[in-house]
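Notes from hallway chat w/ T.B., transcribed later so I don't forget. T.B. wanted the structure written out for a chain they're using in a teaching module, and asked if we could keep both sequence and structure tokens in one place. Agreed to drop them here.
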Amino acid sequence: MRFRVLAGLLAVSLLIFGAANLWATGSGEDTQAGADQEVMVTLVSERGSHTEAWKTQMDSFEAQSGVNLEITQFPYANYRDQLLLSYTSGSNDYDVPYVSLLWYPSFVTSGYIQSINEFLVRNPGIEADMPGLGNGTINGDLYFVPYMNEVGGIVFRTDLFEDQTEQSAFRARYGYDLQPPKNLTQYRDIAEFFHRPPDLYGVSLMGRRGIFLATHFMNRLWAYGGELLDNEMKPVYNSALGALALEETASMFSYASEASLTHDFQETLAEFSAGRSAMAEVWTTSMFTFNNPESSEVAGNCSFVGFPRPEGDEDVVRPRLFISWGFVVTSDIENKEAALSWIEHAIEPDNFAQAAPVGTIPTRLSALDSATLAEAMPWIPAFKEALATCEPTPIAPMIPEGIPIVINHIAVAVSEFISGSGTAQELLDSAAQETYDLLEQNGYYD
């Protein structure tokens, strides 16, 4: 296995290896010549925990397949730029990029990656075992196979929830048992109960204007059955459900620290890890941070539940925030068979379960059933329930304008409402009009 880890903005030229057919044929001297030729698959990724997880499976793949893997890694901050530089320069340095779910549609439009429908033929029935796989399909063609996935939800401190004194006090105050929130009413009650500033806050939230703040609104919009865009790509998040979701988003900041209004994801992780809140409204990979004894004061005392539904709708299947990274295959590579074989190896259930504790969450339900995995990550059954009982929904619409809509329109409306700059309906109407104008300008409507 060859590793090349590249940092910063250093321009890099990759050594191009000659590649032979995956299965050599012939006999005598011809057979030996074929055997001596090297089958190479080049991988590229960001530097992160879920990449470290699948890297643990590279040696076994090489040993079983005879294919050599080479990996290049970039810091997340400039990874996408470096990958695009390779594509736009025409060098096609990488066979199998590991990318964000939100990136691949533009790669399809630009012709940088190819469809991999063979994957479905080679793995019949995998759609039922991999709930997020449908997000990797455009116009009926598969381009993206998810490796890491996570859903939006609530991380909570088990030491507080299981404390008998806290349980008795909660029951006396609210009339029901303290438990991980199953509905939005319970979520609010629990946040209110544990809100004891300045030593303890009810919940950690991400209040800085941006995509993370927008997720708090979208969590509630989807929980109530609302949508961002309808089937005609017209914005509908300014519905009555949207106004309700925005009002409830703002109200939850009453149970968060004042500093939360300046927090993004990392600051929220730090606050909860320091034991300063009872819950955190984030997504599942945060559990790796929270349960790391080297960086967290609440390690071993955390669990997870999917984002709650409204009271009475707890069992209704609705969208939940879905974040995923996975594999795509570059156009015009020489060894597509070997590339697909690597992807299949990485997502094999036993390999998934073995790699996950390093820093990923398997995308296959069958891998989530592993007893070994559940022992290493006790919150996995709750995650599986959250994933299996929702429609996995990306953090932004899967169109080039998706991220700008969330950041420039929705997040702005949420931020301005929290600051008191207008009513929920007024601000959402304004944002929806801006979204409509953008999509109309870009040719989405007749």
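Follow-up for T.B.: Confidence is low (pLDDT under 50) at residues 2-35. Might be a good example for the class.
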